[in-house]
Amino acid sequence: MGRHQQCDGMARRDAIKIGMLGSAGITMSGFMRMADAGEIRQDAKAQSAIFVELPGGPSHLDTFDLKPEGPTEIRGSFKPINTNVPGIQISEHLPKLAGCADKYVIFRGVSHSLGAHPLGQRFLFTGNRPNPSVEYPCFGSVVSKELAGAADLPSFVAIPKSNQGPGHLGVKYAPLATNAIPRAGRPFNVRGVSLAGGMTLHQVEKRQNLLRNLDTKFNAIKKQDDLLSGLDRFSQKAFDMITSKRTREAFDISHESEKLRALYGEDDFSQSCLLATRLVESGVRFVTVTLGGWDTHQDNFSKLKTNLLPKLDAGLAGLFRGLAEKGLLDTTTVFVTGEFGRTPKINTRSAEGGRDHYPRCMCMLMGGGPVLGGQVIGESDESAAGPKNDAVIPEDVAASFYHSLGIDPHKEYQTSIGRPISIVRDGSVLNGLFA
User: Fold this and answer.
1) Between 147 and 44, where is the model more confident?
2) Smallest Cα–Cα separation from 331: which of 264, 290, 280, 282?
3) CB-based burial of residue 113 (10 Å sphere; 0-12 exposed, 13-18 middle, 19+ buried)?
4) Which helix (H) or strand (E) element contains residue 295?
5) Where in 259-416 does DSSP place strands (E)?
6) pLDDT (tens digit, 9 = 90+) per residue, 120-145?
7) Which of 60, 77, 7 lies closest to 361 in space, CA to CA?
8) Which residues make beta-bridge pairs with 371?
9) Does residue 95 have a cis bond before it (omega within 30 degrees)?
10) What is the largest CA-CA distance in the chain?
11) At what angle do helices 268-282 and 309-325 cross, to 10 degrees?
12) What pLDDT score does 362 carry?
């Protein structure tokens, strides 16, 4: 799963409720054990999150918002199929996701106006429209700040990298990027967590003690400098992780049972979703998993059919089912989005045609935690060119995501110069999303 280059370098809402609650749940005995161990905050809903990034912008018309009655130049060649929730249909090339539609919500008619990749990603990954005067923190950095985890575990992990950044919160809340992806049947090492070159834990501890002695000379400076403070936190975190057997084992998917591994595909994205499941179970608060390549200006249908949709189907369905199998779905919110949708009208720049950037209409998915799965919220018009009625806006989805984790989306942070900034500037929790 490599990095992909992009082409440009309710009262306001009503829910269309169709279906049933997700079937997974944590047992009462398990909940009480975790609560007694301090692993569950009584005022929260979900305790962790997995964010699936789809950079490039997936075509909503060919995935979760098909228009089979539309003209050929809009509907394309894909057919809809029924899901396990009566009344909900998705693409024929997502059969596994169709079989677990009760575990997630589809947002249709999501709309905004930023059609460039970097701007769209900054908007969709923070819940705030980009503003030149402030750099908003991404979801993972906010969750990392609000939901403190164990000292020997990273609170925010990106598999293999992420377009999410900490913004004004600073480097201390940046993600630990694995810079690699797990492979089925192979050991997985993460630089900065695994010991390399034959180095022993004793040698690491000796180096750490030396650094502590040197650091005493710079304490006055560090207290006044956010960057040095963040780097110091990173250094201590790295030491805690390297010397922690629990952390090293959290990244080792070979410990998973054959039964669980069978729920996922063997491709890179599926194995990354398997790792995300294991990390959340170990106590990591926020994990991003990236599946790129959705910038389908040309050969849209062959790229989707032969590569992107089979990977998304296997990995994401495995993620929902794997979390459910482990009893983690009720305590983990899963959020899936790209930065925008694709044009309803198919272009003619290649033999089969493609679809271009289109922020006016797109789809997102959310499931797990307190989310009421098995429904569609929002609706697009007859050609999926825009919302049919009220739009679902990214700010409202962001506010709802934070709410699912027990985080107040309107909470204010103070920047280093004392400026108050809300986590989500404009946004309200969506009606009908939660049980």
Assistant:
1) 147
2) 280
3) exposed
4) none
5) 286-290, 332-337, 341-342, 357-358, 362-368, 375-377, 412-414
6) 999 999 999 999 999 999 999 999 99
7) 60
8) 434
9) no
10) 72
11) 20
12) 98
> Which pLDDT tens digit goes with each residue over 241-283?
656 778 878 888 988 999 999 999 999 999 999 999 999 999 9
Residue 19, phi then psi, degrees to nearest 5: 125, -145
What is the CB neighbour count within 10 angstroms for residue 266?
A: 12
> Strands across the sheet with 156-159, in order?
15-16, 375-377, 104-110, 362-368, 332-337, 48-53, 286-290, 156-159, 176-177
Neighbours of 158 (CB within 10 A): 23
Condensed to tens digits (0 to 9), the pLDDT of residues 279-310 reads: 999 999 999 999 999 999 999 999 999 999 99
Q: Are 290 and 149 in contact (CB under 8 A)?
A: no
Q: In the structure, what pLDDT confidence band is assigned to residue 325 with cuts at 50, 70 and 90? A: very high
The DSSP bridge partners found for residue 157 are 176, 287
| Pairing state between β 104-110 and 375-377 | parallel
Do 143 and 286 meet the contact criterion of CB atoms below 8 Å apart?
A: yes
Specify whether the CB–CB gap between 404 and 133 falls below 8 A: no
- What does the alpha-carbon distance between residue 295 and residue 211 come to, in Å, rounded to a whole number? 46
Structure tokens at 144: 């990392």
* DSSP-H helix ranges across 265-339: 268-282, 300-303, 309-325
What is the DSSP pairing of strand 176-177 with strand 156-159?
parallel
Crossing angle between the packed helical segments 139-146 and 394-404, to the nearest 10 degrees: 30
Q: Please state, in angstroms and rounded to a whole number, the distance separating the CA atoms of residues 128 and 108.
A: 19
Instruction: Tell whether the torsion through CA atoms of 313, 16, 112 and 298 is positive or negative.
Output: positive
Query: Token pair for residue 66?
Result: 């098909």
β-pairing, 104-110 with 362-368?
antiparallel
User: What length does the chain have?
Assistant: 435
Count of CB atoms situated within 10 Å of the CB of 136? 26
Q: In whole angstroms, give the CA distance from residue 378 to residue 381.
A: 10
Other beta carbons within 10 angstroms of residue 37's beta carbon come to 8
- Decide: helix, strand or coil at residue 375: strand
Report the distance separating Cα 215 and Cα 209, nearest Å.
Answer: 10
DSSP-based three-state secondary structure for 377? strand
Cα 153–chain centre separation: 19
Cα-flanking dihedrals φ and ψ of residue 173, to 5°? -110, 20
Q: What is the mean pLDDT of residues 193-217?
A: 46
**pTM score of the predicted model:** 0.83
Alpha carbons 139 and 126: distance in angstroms, whole number: 6
Whole-angstrom Cα distance, residue 75 to residue 225? 55
- Please give the Cα distance from 364 to 306 (Å, whole number): 22
